[in-house]
Structure formats: C-alpha cells, structure tokens
Design goal:
single chain, mainly alpha, two-stranded antiparallel ribbon, 10 helices, globular
C-alpha cells in the first residue's frame, strides 16, 4: 500500500522525470546486442579454457583469439608435441566450438551493421571519432530521441561517465567515475576512446586537447575523459534533442581511426 501511494504521489509531481518507453525496433536491436555480448563472453571463456588446458602440457599460447586460431591447427597436427589422443580429440571439439562462437559473433555484427546503415541517427553518430557502427546503434537503441536530457552532460552522467562527488561545506571532492547506468554501452564508449588515444599518440597535433591531457595524466584517465566528452557530443546527434544544434567535424580535431566497434 505504501509503495502504491508513493508511486501515485510521484506521478502527480510536475518536475518528475520518467524513463522513456522503448519502441519495438529499439528492443529488437538491443536484443541482438545482448546476444552478441553473450557470444563474445562465451568465446573468451572458451579460448581461456583451451589456453589453460594446453599450458598444463607445456604448450603456451599468447593471449588473444587470433593467437589461438593461428596456433591450434599446427598444435593438433603436430604428432611430436606429446599430447595424448584423448586430449587431442577434446581440443578438436573445443576448437570447433570456438569457431562456431566466432561465426555467431560475426553474423550478429553484420546484422547490426545492416541496421546501422538504414538508421539516420546511427549514421550521424558514427561521424564522431571513437564511435563505430556497433556503438552508434547501441546508443540510438538505448537512448532513443534523448528528449529526457537537457544537454549532453546529463546524458554522460546517465551512463556513469562522470566522477562521484563527496562534497560538503563548500569543499568539492571528486572521486572516480560513478559507473552507473548501462555497463555495456559505457564499455563500448571507453574502448572506442582507447582506440582514439592510441591513434592520437603519434598522429594527432601536439597542441590538441587530447595530447595535452595524455602528457600529464594516465592513458586510462585520458580515455575516460575522452569517452565523457564524446557522450556530451553524441547528445546533439540524436533526433529531437533539446539542444539540436548540429556539430561539425571541425570541432573534433582528431582523425578517426579504423575501428570495429
């Protein structure tokens, strides 16, 4: 009873902000993103399991899916590496499973990219350095028209990319990022920002904002700061935003690196 009364009271308040309801198309593309995320996690777990089993027999494979895909055919065909037949058959089964997971990830990514090409808002977001088709489609499907946010800074805070505050008595204390909101989308944004920071180390102008930040702070701090700034900019690319002034690419001095996400 008390919860129902609180809900009725909240609904009647004029300044309450409500979570917008996603349409069917948004839910569908987000389902593809969640399925892809699950396959990626399963693929990583499978690769780590294969790497661990081989290490017990003295065969060490570097980290990364590509290393396993490159080394496994030679390991399975090498009759002098000391692997028993039982383990060899097991590794063949696990390797086939890894390939199947990889195929599922590629097919879902292709489906997301096809949706991205048909969505105008998603294509506009791709113009921002650090945002590829995967991230752009995830932002559009998660945020929608962004009318619930007054500006890009509110959007960035909604995704947990702003620092926590422990301020009191006029003294401002800023901590690490709050990590509130959508973990998947925040991860995509930070990965894209890391790609831009790696590209900017050698090819960006020395006087650029990012190069100056990287010179005095840790690279991870610079990546998070860039992700926050990217989120602030992305709010203006979404349709029907309260701040609908378009951003030209001149305001992004960094060239866009090749990126898959």
């Amino acid at each position: 009873m008390a919860d129902a009364e609180a809900i009725c009271e909240a609904v009647n308040r004029p300044n309450m902000r409500f979570v917008p309801i996603k349409n069917v198309e948004q839910q569908a593309i987000l389902s593809i993103h969640r399925a892809r995320q699950g396959f990626v996690k399963a693929r990583t777990a499978q690769a780590n399991q294969m790497r661990g089993l081989l290490s017990e027999f003295g065969i060490v494979i570097p980290q990364g899916i590509r290393s396993i895909n490159k080394r496994m055919p030679d390991i399975l065909e090498d009759a002098e590496n000391g692997l028993p037949g039982t383990l060899r058959k097991l590794l063949e089964r696990l390797n086939d499973h890894l390939k199947e997971l990889d195929r599922q990830v590629e097919e879902l990514e292709l489906q997301i990219k096809l949706w991205h090409k048909e969505n105008e808002a998603s294509q506009r977001l791709e113009a921002i350095p650090g945002i590829g088709p995967i991230t752009a489609s995830a932002i559009v499907a998660t945020v929608g028209n962004a009318t619930e946010f007054k500006n890009g800074r509110q959007l960035s805070a909604w995704f947990g990319l702003v620092p926590k505050q422990r301020s009191s008595g006029g003294k401002q204390i800023l901590l690490g990022i709050s990590k509130r909101g959508d973990t998947y989308l925040r991860t995509l944004m930070i990965h894209g920002a890391r790609a831009v920071t790696r590209f900017a180390e050698n090819k960006a102008e020395p006087e650029s904002w990012l190069r100056k930040l990287m010179a005095r702070r840790n690279k991870n701090v610079a990546a998070v700061a860039l992700a926050t700034r990217t989120h602030v900019s992305s709010g203006r690319y979404l349709p029907e935003t309260l701040n609908s002034t378009p951003i030209t690419l001149r305001q992004h001095p960094l060239p866009k690196p090749d990126q898959g996400g």
